[in-house]
Amino acid sequence: MDQNDTDVEAGELPLRRVFNEELGCDVLDCAYLSAACAHCDDAPCVMACPFGAPRYLPDSGKMVKCDGCNERLKSGLMPACVRACTFGALTCMNEEEYQNSVKARALHAMLLATGHRS
Q1: Quick one: average pLDDT of 82-100?
Q2: Which of 28, 39, 80, 95 has a C-alpha 20 to 30 A away from that of 110?
Q3: Cα dihedral sign, 85-86-90-94
């Protein structure tokens, strides 16, 4: 059994906190991600993905989802959506790169708050 076999009740979607990073000054950086696919009738992820990665299978009533371009990553390539995003809004990074970006953002915010420009 996987998350596709779980019926999702109407109402507030289940969320889980994925990480909780202390940034200093009692500020926490948290990310909340959906715990499971809600199998929406009019799924926004299907409309948003330029590559058709999430797809609804009418025969089974289930969604087939993005795998993060795992094979591309294994070959040293970026996920297709990251590569194709003309605005640079998407990134792909490992845990160490993420931790460094969190620290850099926190430092930048503290410098701005104290009147310094970086």
Answers
A1: 86
A2: 95
A3: positive
